[in-house]
Amino acid sequence: NTPVDLAFVIDGSASVGPLQFEKSKKFVRDMVDGFNIGAAQTRVGVVQFAWMVQAEFNLGDYLDGTDLRNAIARIRYMDGPGTEIGKALVFTKRRLFSELYGARPETQDVPRIVILITDGRSSPESQLHTAGVVVYAVGVGEAVDEAELETAASDSSKVYHVRDFDSL
Q1: Is the CATH code 3.40.50.410 the one for domain 5-167?
Q2: 103 vs 82: CA distance, rounded Å
Q3: Mutual orientation of helices 65-74 and 18-32 as an angle, nearest 10°?
Q4: Cβ–Cβ under 8 Å, residues 68 and 62
Q5: Where are the domains of the chain?
Q6: Residue 56, exposed/middle/buried by CB under 10 A (0-12, 13-18, 19+)?
Q7: Most buried of the four, 40, 74, 104, 146, by CB within 10 Å?
Q8: Beta-strand pair 5-11/112-118
Q9: How far apart are CA 41 and CA 104, in angstroms?
Q10: What does pTM read for this prediction?
Q11: Which H helix or E strand runs over 43?
């Protein structure tokens, strides 16, 4: 029941494919079901990335669990070239974890958590965790660079690797 500002950063690159992308969305929905969603509880935002990055919705946009699950279901697969993890993490820090877009002030000591889901390699990552954000990295498939996941994550205990999207 601890309040959390939770951001999912989802790989929407062409290498993922539409079927696997739907499995990523299901993983996000399943994770969200484990939290109490609300203004004073957990707030959830989603970022999708490939060569470009976009906010699907911000932390303050959906403060009801049903509305949030429906918003996740409506996310459309980007199907873009590239896998810009670094850009996505910087964007997440600047956009989703901004009070302007629904994040709580750092003075409230609400944990800020990122769950990154990707299947590939990228440009160098930002050290988002140095800004007080805990980053979990979930690598999917064989093309994942384990060292890169460890760089993106807050520490090596926050790195997870699964064989395929069915294993999420």
Answers
A1: yes
A2: 28
A3: 170
A4: yes
A5: 5-167
A6: buried
A7: 104
A8: parallel
A9: 11
A10: 0.80
A11: strand 43-49
> Contact 21/110 with Cβ under 8 angstroms?
no
Residue 66 CA to residue 61 CA, distance in Å, equals 12
Count of CB atoms situated within 10 Å of the CB of 40: 10
CB 55 within 8 A of CB 95: yes
Give the pairing type, strands 53-57 and 43-49: antiparallel
Are 31 and 9 contacting, i.e. CB atoms less than 8 angstroms apart? no
How long, in residues, is the chain? 168
Q: Are 37 and 77 in contact (CB under 8 A)?
A: no
| Local confidence band at 96 (pLDDT 50, 70, 90 cut-offs) | very high
Kindly state the tokens that stand for 59. 């932390």
